[in-house]
Amino acid sequence: MEGIKPCPVCDGTGLKGGLAGEFHPRDIRRSRLVLIPAACTACRGCSHATHGECSPLHAGDDTIRSAPAPR
Asked: Is 44 in contact with 58 (CB distance < 8 Å)?
């Protein structure tokens, strides 16, 4: 990440503060709460402040418009 400015919202971690919990019931008697890391909503989990080097569909509408049209 040398030379790339980290996301100011998540301080470059790519994660939202804390974990998100979800129940995945396969067997009601043995179901457990599964904790999964939640991606930062500002950088969408890439940890960068700017998205010039990200894939075209990563950073939202601005990047999608600037992506080359498929042939």
From this structure: yes
The residue count of the chain comes to 71
Q: Is residue 26 part of a domain?
A: yes
Predicted TM-score (pTM) of this structure: 0.53
> Is residue 21 in some structural domain?
yes
Q: What whole-number distance in Å separates Cα of residue 53 and Cα of residue 48?
A: 9
- pLDDT tens, position by position, 18-68: 655 565 566 666 666 666 678 888 888 888 888 777 777 665 545 444 444
Number of structural domains the chain divides into: 1
The 8 Å CB, 24+ separation contacts for 24-30 are none
- Domain-embedded: residue 31: yes
